[in-house]
Amino acid sequence: MQVMSESTAPGMLSDQAVARYHDQGFLHVPQLLTPAEVAEFLEEGKRHFALEEARTHGPNEGVRTHELDEGLVVEWVNHAGLDNDVLRRLSCHPRIAEVAETLAGGPLRLFKSDLYRKKAESTLTPIHHDEVFFPFSARSALTAWVALVDVPAEKGCLSFIPGSHRVVVPPSADKDPMDALVEAEDPFSRWPELAYQPFVTVPVRAGDVTFHHGRIAHWAGANRTDSTRFSLITIYMDAAATFQATSIHNLLNPDDPDLGGHRPGQQLDGDRFPLIANGG
Ligand code: NI
Question: Domain ranges in the chain?
C-alpha cells in the first residue's frame, strides 16, 4: 500500500515527498492549518459568501454557479482573496506558501484564490485539468486546495489520476473556447489511455491541503452529506509568469479580460500578484 500523504512537519517536506509530487502530480499535506486558524477562515468564508450574495453585481461577479443537467455542481466567489484581507492572508499563508514553493522548486506568486462551497446534494465536479483556465505562461503552476471542513469521500473530496500531468497538454490559447472547454472536461477522448489508469481518492480533514499540478486530471465527488463543503482554492504561478490572453479566460471573465490592464507577454506582478514568500 502506497502512502499518499505527507505527514512530515510543515516546512520539513521530505525529498521523497517532493519526488512523489513530481511523479504523481499531487501531494496531500495534513494539518497545515491549526484548528484555531480553520475556525477563523471558515467563519470568514461563510461571511464572505453571505456578503457577496447580498451585494449587487454585474454579470460574472459575485457568487458564480456551475450547474449541469444533473444538478448544481458547485458555487464560488472568484478572486475572493483580492478584496478580503482575511482570505488574502490564507491565500499567502506561510506554511502553505513554503510547501508550494518547495514543490515548485522556486519562488511563486499568487495568481488568485477562489472560495468554494459545495452544498448538500450537489453533484459530481466533472474531470478536468486546471491549466486550461490559466491566462498566463509560467514555468510552473500549481493549485492548493485548502479544506475548511472535514471532507470524507461522500462529501466531495478530490480524486486524481496519478501521473496524468505528464500526459495532458492544454489546448492552444486561441482555440475556440467552447471546444477547449469540452476538451478540458473530456480528457479521455484525447488521451484514452487515462481511462484505464488507476485513480486515487483523497479524503481530507479541515486544515489539510492538497497540492496539485496544473495539468493533472482530477475531479470532485458529489456531496452526499447533509452539510456544505467549504474550501479555498488558490493558484500559484512561478515568479516570472507572464500574461497570456486565452479564449477560455475571455469567455469566462469578460469583466476582466486583461487582468487589470496587462499586455500579452507582460509580467504579472505588483499588489494583485504578490510574491508569496513572507506572507505576500
Ligand atoms: Ni480543478
Answer: 10-278
- Supply 31's cell numbers: 494539518
Pick the CATH number of 10-278 from 2.60.120.620, 2.60.40.10, 1.10.10.10, 3.30.450.20: 2.60.120.620
Tens of pLDDT along 192-202?
Answer: 999 999 999 99
Q: How far is the CA of 239 from the centre of ligand 1 (A)?
A: 21
- Strand locations in 46-97 (E): 63-68, 71-77
d(CA 2, CA 64): 37
Give Cα separations from 1 to 5, 14, 178 (angstroms). Answer: 12, 19, 40
- Cα 218 to ligand 1 centroid, rounded to whole Å: 6
Helix/strand/coil for 177: helix
pTM for the whole thing?
A: 0.93
- Tell me how far apart the alpha carbons of residues 151 and 101 are, in angstroms, rounded to a whole number: 25
